[in-house]
Amino acid sequence: MVYTGVLQATKKTVAEEGIAALWKGAVPTAMGMAAENAMAFGVNEALKRAFPDPSKDSSNINARPDLIRPFLMGTITGCCSALVLLPSEVVKAKTQVVVGNNGASSSDVYKRMLRKQGVKSLFCGLDSQLMRDGSFYAVFFGGYELFCYSFRTYVPSMPEELNYFLSGGFAGMLGWAVAMPFDVPKTNVQSRWDTKVVGSYFPEMARIAKERGVIGFYSGLGPTLIRAFPANAALFLGVEMGKKFFDNLLWKE
């Protein structure tokens, strides 16, 4: 069934399956997010240490950063993150389209996947995951550095904690605005049971473009952006404060 909007989809889902259906796929989502963020921030920080920005001095956080480097590192980060996130994304996508309560749990979907396609079922839509995560993290980390520098330059009185919070929130929104056209076909191919590991993504993009036009690639953009700001604002604030804690209190020489 094709829903016409968020409210209509919510009402229809609750009426037919109960309010608990709104949390379908929560378990693989939570597991995937933990692995994804560990990989993403770990890889990105490792890249920043391995290839430091020559225009930045550690003693001067207000120095103008290289505006190309963080976008390139973000793309590499996204490709690495996609590899650990993919299995949970496939299980989540298939779980969320199951109608009713029969076989609707993530474990039921997981077992059915292994019976039908074996281990390779966990990696269906690999190309779609790389496209979505590569574009998202390029803008996510690149945008974050750009927003942080802009706030420090044009609002110098802003507390660093508020800078982290706002920059993270805006970077998340910008990242999803760019990645959304890649995410919609990704979700479609991963929710099906006939998807190949590689090769189903671009035909799905062509189908959406033919049937719905460009607007079809932005289905669900509104609620995604609303969710993106608080989630990523809190994420970056937590990461930055955590880095300061460990650097200053545990590893300070």
Structure description:
By secondary structure, this protein is mostly helical. 71% of the residues lie in helices and 0% in strands. The chain has helices at residues 6-17, 26-50, 69-96, 106-117, 126-154, 160-191, 201-212, 221-250. α3 (69-96) packs across α4 (106-117), α3 (69-96) crosses α5 (126-154) and α3 crosses α6 (160-191). The radius of gyration is 20 Å and the shape is elongated. The termini are far apart.
User: Whole-number average pLDDT?
Assistant: 86
The DSSP helix count reads 8
Low-confidence stretches: none
**Overall strand count:** 0
* Computed CA radius of gyration, to the nearest angstrom: 20 Å
Helices and strands, in order, run as: HHHHHHHH
Please describe the biggest sheet, giving its number of strands, its sense, and whether it closes into a barrel: none
Global outline:
elongated
Secondary-structure class? mainly alpha
Helix content: over 70%
Strand content: under 5%
Query: What gap, in angstroms, lies between the N and C termini?
Result: 60 Å
Short structural description:
It is built from eight helices and no strands. It has 253 residues and is mainly alpha-helical.
List the defining traits of the structure above:
single chain; about 250 residues; elongated
Draw up the topology in text.
Blueprint: H1 6-17, H2 26-50, H3 69-96, H4 106-117, H5 126-154, H6 160-191, H7 201-212, H8 221-250
Helix pairs in contact: 2-3, 3-4, 3-5, 3-6, 5-6, 6-7, 6-8
